[in-house]
Amino acid sequence: MSAPLPFPLAEAPDDEAREAGRLLFAAPTEFLKGVVAMDGLPPDDRLEVCFAGRSNVGKSSLINALTGRKGLARASNTPGRTQEINFFTTTGGPYLVDLPGYGFANAPVKVVEKWQRLLKAYLAGRASLRRAFVLIDARHGVKAVDEEIMALLDRAAVTFQVVLTKADKIKLEDRERVLTQVRGALAKHPAAFPELVVTSSEKGDGIETLRAIISTLE
């Protein structure tokens, strides 16, 4: 009998978790505010989950797919367009937090440095943050800049779970190669949650699973 894979793909949710996820995201999700400094954060009076990833990895598209609202988070083909921490409220559930993209950004160096500092301060200092979802492009796997954010999450003791995006853009045999690379990278990070979620915002793959995961966090 072969040994189980490290960091297996998350299984499809059971009926109870699937329904919890459906109900959470069937209710209205609203944009609350964009934050450009730590003193602008909303009260940490509920759980929150955040979405982190390289510029143009598909964070906004994933949030739109989760909530079923195409225009909720502003998707852009311009890397680095999101320069603030954007908070969204779910009805009776956690905050959804869209973090500024890290890595390459089409913005002045000083602007990039400012929002990278904000990103790091948020991840290290937000007590209500229950899980970070680190988005990895399924076509490219883990890059050096992803390793940096994962190391930061390790130091902050924030559990993070890798979500592969744009799975519809890659052939199945290539996906297996990328999954092997991602699993090898995650083995070095103690804060990594031991399951992967593979998604496609366009096709809807993995969205139901991710909804269920978010809705059942405590």
TrEMBL record:
<dbReference type="InterPro" id="IPR030393">
    <property type="entry name" value="G_ENGB_dom"/>
</dbReference>
<keyword id="KW-0460">Magnesium</keyword>
<dbReference type="Pfam" id="PF01926">
    <property type="entry name" value="MMR_HSR1"/>
</dbReference>
<keyword id="KW-0547">Nucleotide-binding</keyword>
<dbReference type="InterPro" id="IPR006073">
    <property type="entry name" value="GTP-bd"/>
</dbReference>
<keyword id="KW-0131">Cell cycle</keyword>
<protein>
    <recommendedName>
        <fullName>Probable GTP-binding protein EngB</fullName>
    </recommendedName>
</protein>
<comment type="similarity">
    <text>Belongs to the TRAFAC class TrmE-Era-EngA-EngB-Septin-like GTPase superfamily. EngB GTPase family.</text>
</comment>
<feature type="domain" description="EngB-type G">
    <location>
        <begin position="45"/>
        <end position="218"/>
    </location>
</feature>
<keyword id="KW-0132">Cell division</keyword>
<dbReference type="InterPro" id="IPR027417">
    <property type="entry name" value="P-loop_NTPase"/>
</dbReference>
<keyword id="KW-0717">Septation</keyword>
<keyword id="KW-0342">GTP-binding</keyword>
<comment type="function">
    <text>Necessary for normal cell division and for the maintenance of normal septation.</text>
</comment>
<keyword id="KW-0479">Metal-binding</keyword>
<dbReference type="InterPro" id="IPR019987">
    <property type="entry name" value="GTP-bd_ribosome_bio_YsxC"/>
</dbReference>
